[in-house]
Write a structure and sequence with these properties.
By secondary structure, this protein is mainly α. The chain has six helices and three strands. The chain has a domain at about 55-135: Arc Repressor Mutant, subunit A (Orthogonal Bundle). The chain has helices at about 15-25, 40-55, 60-70, 75-85, 95-115, 140; strands at about 70-75, 120-125, 130. It is globular.
């Protein structure tokens, strides 16, 4: 059953930029100001928006992690790897229907979105996916995926 937020840690309402900035900069008390990356240009802000959008979904994080590990991979193999990572089970223990659902979701939703955002190149003729040069910059956010 859905339970609404009951704490005071609700996201700031749109238009309250100072509150959002304060939450973003004070959230991690261990952040090193020398290494903390803050987008300064419009291009950097756009990249961060695209990256956070891509990373907002666990299946896309798994797919990016697989691509980071393997480089170019066939879509069927990507679906296998993502299904294994999602379930923490060997492929032989995952129902074929679950792998097929993963394949279809990757093919119809996640790979096109990652391609539109510039994180993967998909070759439909060979049914292969390759992470772009932007994928390594996402590695710190893929840990454990």
């Amino acid at each position: 059953m859905y339970a609404p937020h009951t704490t005071d840690q609700r996201p700031a309402a749109p238009g309250h930029r100072q509150d959002v900035e304060k939450q973003m900069t004070t959230h991690d008390t261990h952040a090193d100001p020398e290494t903390t990356v803050r987008p300064e240009t419009a291009e950097e802000r756009e990249f961060f928006d695209r990256a956070f959008d891509a990373l907002s979904n666990a299946r896309r994080r798994h797919a990016l992690s697989v691509l980071s590990d393997h480089g170019t991979i066939g879509l069927a193999d990507l679906a296998d790897e993502v299904a294994v990572r999602e379930r923490s089970l060997p492929l032989s223990e995952i129902p074929a229907e679950a792998v097929a659902e993963t394949y279809m979701a990757l093919y119809h939703r996640h790979v096109p979105r990652l391609a539109d955002e510039g994180f993967v190149d998909y070759d439909q003729e060979t049914d292969t996916i390759r992470g772009t040069e932007a994928v390594p910059s996402l590695d710190p956010y893929l840990d454990g995926e």
